[in-house]
Amino acid sequence: MDKKYQIDTPENIRFLNEIRKKLLAFGKDVISPDGTAYYLGDDGRPWPDFPRNTYETARMCHVYHMGAMMYRQEWKKQADGAKKGLISALHDEKNGGWFDGLLPDGKPKEGKLCYSHAFVILAASDCLMAGDEEGKEFFDKALSVFDRYFWDEKDGMTCDTWDTSFSQKDSYRGLNANMHTVEALLNAADASGKEVYRQRAGRIIRRVVDLAAGNEWRIPEHYNDQWDPLLDYNEDRPADPFKPYGATPGHGLEWARLILQWASSTFDEDDPDFHHFLEASQKLFHRAKEDAWFADGAPGFVYTTDWSGKPIVSYRMHWVLAEAINTAAVLYRVTNQAYYADSFAEFLAYLDEKVLDHDHGSWFHQLNNNNEVVGTVWPGKPDLYHAYQATLIPYCDVNLSVCKAVRDGKYPDALNH
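^ that's the sequence the OP posted. Answer follows.
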């Protein structure tokens, strides 16, 4: 195996560093005049006929804040631009909270989504950590809206969707929004020092671990407002980009990493609770890899499986690979087991061969089961967030959110060079 795929080698650090810098350069034109993030095409040029989404704007704020922290403010223009879009154009001054995005004509999208608000919290936490003069007000406003409308103290989980005026709450409950809420709350705890946010993340995690354990570590994604699983949800739309039918192995991988981050920041390593959650993380990783990696005879992770682990949607999504890279590395850091280092190298070799666009930059967002580029679910390359984090998380302290690790320099000095 080429050394550039092997964790902790100078060659691997350089490889990830090169990818990271190219990602930042690829997205340099992402910010529109009002600060919202354009949808990016295959070559990084904006596609103005696509909506400018709140979650994507917040993700770009997150990416470019870290870019500015690492590379001497070179990318502060994009970070500040995205922050402007979140504070002004995407914020609903009448009803509070954040629109889900803006349509190409500038009108707001209908509805208020926990998924988008979680990314707003992520971005606001970054601004607070960066010492931004507007950071505290932005952070306080984001958490206030979340507390009022999305956090359910009784269930210890989030609701999913409101109408635009926050007068009608949908009965659907979903784990995708809860997963990104965990990421956001851990970032918020690291940014503010308020451990209540880490405790809330832990409440969500404990429930998800129980749900996964009760379903052979294939996590049910969809629920009603009583948190009864809806195992047939969207059976007629199996490739939905946010709420697909069946099990989503990429989310199993992502949950595994977030569980480890929370457990590492909450318990001592000799605490039985730490070992309980480490074991859960390992089971989620192994289930996802067993079900989805090379599942149809070709390299790559399939997007979804049924409840017995049989592939349903065989598209390869770039974000699933990014989360596999992250989680393999984090499990290796915690366990020192060669299996995870070998998995990390295996995933990076596939990234280099099939998923990196060596001509135009960034990562191909969707491949078919022959590893040919397609765009039926994710045309273009609108997202830097998953790919960018996959160049950092393998070398960050496990118990820190990635932005705090970057701010505090908790990664090898070689990453700066």
